[in-house]
Amino acid sequence: xxxxxxxxxxxxxxxxxxxxxxxxxxxxxxxxxxxxxxxxxxxxxxxxxxxxxxxxxxxxxxxxxxxxxxxxxxxxxxxxxxxxxxxxxxxxxxxxxxxxxxxxxxxxxxxxxxxxxxxxxxxxxxxxxxxxxxxxxxxxxxxxxxxxxxxxxxxxxxxxxxxxxxxxxxxxxxxxxxxxxxxxxxxxxxxxxxxxxxxxxxxxxxxxxxxxx
Length: 213
Hints:
Layout: H1 7-31, H2 39-73, H3 83-91, H4 93-96, H5 100-108, H6 111-119, H7 125-131, H8 142-150, H9 154-167, H10 172-188, H11 200-205
Helix pairs in contact: 1-2, 1-3, 2-9, 3-9, 5-6
């Protein structure tokens, strides 16, 4: 029996991943808010938030790519290497929906809505400030709003890469871990075999799934 991929299910997974990323990025920005007074500090915060938000999306899709590889190998699912990209393009509609606040702020001249919009998007907050640096609705137009919407393309980017690497069974985290262990093993004279571990976010967000194994 052929298994079918479910876009509604995957959209919900991206919603959960995005919500999780928003919480963690908000904590990061709040905890390191003293860096906001410096340009380099803002760059550091944005890099951290990008790594966190992108890492969560990447891990989510890596998990499904790895899982669906089994189904394809056993003839239970059709191969679709662009599935991660498709999920990302649909999934980006969730965080992008918050952009309605920007549109309303501009049309109705309500600066407070700009503040709410930025609070809902801590994962790209510093990048948003490149186009909308203040809450003054006269300081930006619909072109800036459109450019801000393009920032959400980080979602399909990380989803596509995560799914492709998961499908290819290429784990970046394991490569980094084992590379370090090999160096430690060479320095210590011998290397102790270790059980491979799942990526951190995968262990945090998912329980072991025995289905299809």
